[in-house]
Structure formats: C-alpha cells, structure tokens
Amino acid sequence: MRRARLACLCACLTVVLFPACQQAAEEEAKPAAAAPPPAGQPTPKLRLPEGQHVHHQHEGMDMDLDGAVMNENTEKLPQDCPKIAGDVEITVKAGKKYARQYPGKMFSYDRNEWEAGPCTRVKLTFINEDPVRHQWMMHGLPMYLYPQAMFHIEVTGPAQKTGTFILPSTKRTYFVHCDIAQHMEKGMKGQLKVAGGDGDLLSIPGIVGDRYPDRYEVGDWGWPVALGAGFAGLLGAGLMFWFGRKADQPGPSEAP
Ligand SMILES: [Cu+2]
Fold first, then answer.
1. Rounded distance between C-alpha atoms, residue 136 and residue 67, angstroms
2. Distance between Cα 29 and ligand 1 center (Å)
3. Domain count of the chain?
4. Which position has the higher pLDDT, 166 or 240?
5. 107, 186 in Cβ contact below 8 A?
6. Which pLDDT score, from 0 to 100, does residue 214 have?
C-alpha cells in the first residue's frame, strides 16, 4: 500500500513539474527581445541572419528600424544631363488626416503634386504622421541609375527619412504612390512633374478625379429614409403619449 502511494506521488510530481521545467527551458532558449531605442536616439541598422530573404533587401537600400531609402543617388548624372542644374528640397507629409478633404479616400500625402526642373538634384524628406507604414515610391527613372527604375522612401511609423535622387532632363510626369496594400487606391497617390510634365495621371486626389468614382447607393434613398424616420418618430411619440395618458387614469379599484 505504501509503495502504491509513493508511486502515485511520483507520478503526480512528474505531471506537475515536468511541463513547468520544460516551459522554463524553452523560455531560457528564446532570444531576448530587442529593447526599442530611447526616444530621439538614432535607430540601429538592421542586421539580418546570413541567407535570410527580405523583400527589397539589396544593394542600394539603406534600412533601419524607422524605414528605408532605396536607390539614393547624390552624384551620378543621368546620361542626358551635362551637370546638375540645381538642388531642391521637397518635404512630403503622409497621413490619414490629409485624406479628409477627399471623399471616399483614407490616406493621402499633404500634397499630391510636386515640380522640379530638368537635371535637378532632389533631396526629399518623407514624414509619416500615421502609426502605420507609408511609402513615397517614384517610378519611371532610368534603370541604368535606379534599379527597378524607382526611387523609394519608406517610413514604418511616425518618423521621417530623407533621400536624394537626380532627375533626367526629359519633360515628363512621374508616377508616385504608396505601395502598401490599398493605400494607393485609398488616396496615397501623386505625380512629380519635370519641366511642367507631360500631362496628368489618373486618380490623383485633388488634381484628377477617379475615372469611375465611388457611388454609394444609400445616397439615392435619402428622402424615403428621412420620411420613414420622421413617420416612425411621430408614431413612437404618439404611442408614448397614449400609454402615458392611460397609465395616469385611475384603475377600477381606485375609482370612487
Ligand atoms: Cu501608405
């Protein structure tokens, strides 16, 4: 009997202690979570395990925890530019609040069109005011200078990053957008015109309307819905009044 009790006690201790010990060992084996840098301090560069694939991780990308600048070019001249014609600084803000003026949109830049001269060196500061990731991605640049023909700044949250690129001499309108899913469709889209550009792109908030604007059927039911709501309100008020009067009347037992 005593041996049986001892066996039972051992089994119970095994059941209770083994998972706890296993959990403690697993916790110890986990890598310590990286503490965020103090506010105002520069964030460290990302160091990736060898062989780990990361989207857009290649030469030409400067990445840290605040975001990334891709294909920065401060010196190399486009083939059609004998020299840098001038320097401009552009600041772009991104956030939900800039979309409020555009019905049906959710995200926007503070402006959706920028201008620069031919062969200009542009220093662009991108300020993200939202707690979600946004991008300022410009397409159509010469591929011999800009891999994938684009210059791209991405900021992962409320922070900012600055990058520089040199424009060719061609009179052209360049397409700019945020490539995060649905951000462009919901308004984060713009255009950069060189030498006045070669026209406007489609669906640029505040500049060119949507080809097929959103149409909300509920708008067509405005009057019937308003009349129905008014009638229902009057009916409800009438019923309340009637029940109130009835409740105030003395019952049969209270009659004199
Ligand atoms: Cu975005």
1. 11
2. 37
3. 1
4. 166
5. yes
6. 72
